[in-house]
Write a structure and sequence with these properties.
The chain is an all-beta fold and 211 residues long. The strands form three sheets. Strands 1, 2, 4, 7, 8, 10 and 13 form a seven-stranded antiparallel beta sheet that branches. It is elongated, with a radius of gyration of 21 Å. The relative contact order is 0.27. The mean pLDDT is 86.
Length: 211
């Protein structure tokens, strides 16, 4: 089940308009490596903007977006409110789940086609998030500038799975005296793994008896 990793939640009455070549983003720095699967943003709309999406990108040494999109997510604009107060938070699922490295800066970018009457609003949260800041591009992503505040955002993902097996009756040295095996499962391929038809994840344990 996805869990929330990096976030900044500080709702204000200030909103930024996103449309056309005016792209806006928020950089963030994961404290723990994980696969990002969705984001949650406090956004609203005016009119009906098109091609609205969220993009995840890596950043360069200056903390500005660079390279190809790591993941994208389509924003269902018709589900967004047209009233700014109160504006609920919206989840946007990503098309892929790229691995994010710990202590490495990334960017969440919101963009759409539109105009002054058809656009997306993103709620500003004031400054304070320690792992990044708001960014803006006025030329469709060709160049980026920093804004002196942070957007309200949450990024959600999956971490390594932890499996604790209790009551193990094996001839092994129980260093912590818990009679438990602590196993970390890591998906080493880009293919998502699912539980079996019986609803269980099966783990095979091979061991050598103590001499």
């Amino acid at each position: 089940m996805p869990v929330r990793y990096e976030y900044w939640v500080y709702e204000t009455a200030a909103w930024t308009e996103v449309y056309g070549n005016d792209w806006h983003g928020q950089t963030f720095t994961p404290g723990v490596a994980h696969r990002i699967v969705k984001v949650r943003l406090r956004i609203a709309r005016a009119g009906i903007p098109t091609n609205a999406e969220v993009v995840i990108k890596a950043t360069d040494e200056e903390g500005k977006p660079t390279g190809a999109d790591l993941a994208t997510g389509t924003i269902n604009v018709l589900s967004l409110p047209v009233d700014l107060v109160p504006a609920p938070w919206t989840y946007i699922s990503l098309s892929t789940s790229p691995s994010l490295s710990a202590l490495t800066k990334y960017a969440i970018i919101v963009r759409c086609l539109g105009n002054v009457d058809n656009k997306i609003y993103w709620n500003e949260g004031g400054p304070g998030y320690p792992g990044g800041q708001a960014i803006v591009s006025l030329d469709g992503g060709a160049s980026w500038l920093f804004n002196p505040f942070d957007f309200n955002f949450e990024e959600w993902g999956n971490h390594w799975y932890h499996l604790n097996v209790k009551g193990v009756n094996l001839p092994y040295e129980d260093l912590d005296k818990t009679k438990e095996l602590h196993i970390i499962l890591k998906n080493l391929s880009p293919t998502t793994k699912s539980k079996g038809a019986d609803g269980a994840v099966k783990v095979k344990i091979d061991y050598e008896p103590a001499a």
